[in-house]
Specification:
This protein is mainly alpha-helical. The protein has one helix and no strands.
């Protein structure tokens, strides 16, 4: 190989190496840009996750408050059931009393009619 051929070969190889290096630099720049974009998206996702964690914390507190409210409601319902039973008992007692009073009034009414008849009979006899 002659000196001129060698120089031509070296120049061609250097040119190929420079071209390959330029491609590698471009690829490196593209990768850096992609990684930067990925980091930006990852930060957004992390922020979304943090917001979701806060929302979940608020929801857990709300659920705890709701559980307490439900417990209070259950106790209130138990009290209402007891009150309803008392009212039913009172209503039954009043109904029984009314029936008894109705029978007494009926008996008194019958006696009153009987006395009126006796009084009329006595007046006629005189």
């Amino acid at each position: 190989m002659s000196d001129e051929d060698f120089k031509s070969f070296v120049r061609k190889e250097l040119s190929d190496i420079r071209r390959d290096m330029a491609q590698m630099q471009q690829m490196t720049a593209d990768l850096i840009r992609i990684v930067g974009n990925t980091n930006g998206m990852l930060e957004e996702v992390q922020q979304d996750v943090n917001v979701m964690k806060q929302d979940i914390g608020v929801m857990k507190r709300d659920i705890d408050v709701m559980k307490q409210d439900i417990d209070v409601m259950k106790r209130d319902i138990d009290v209402m059931k007891q009150d309803i039973n008392v009212i039913k008992q009172d209503q039954k007692r009043m109904s029984d009393t009314q029936e008894e009073q109705g029978r007494v009034l009926e008996m008194l009414s019958y006696r009153s009619l009987a006395h009126d008849a006796d009084i009329r009979d006595l007046r006629r006899v005189r």
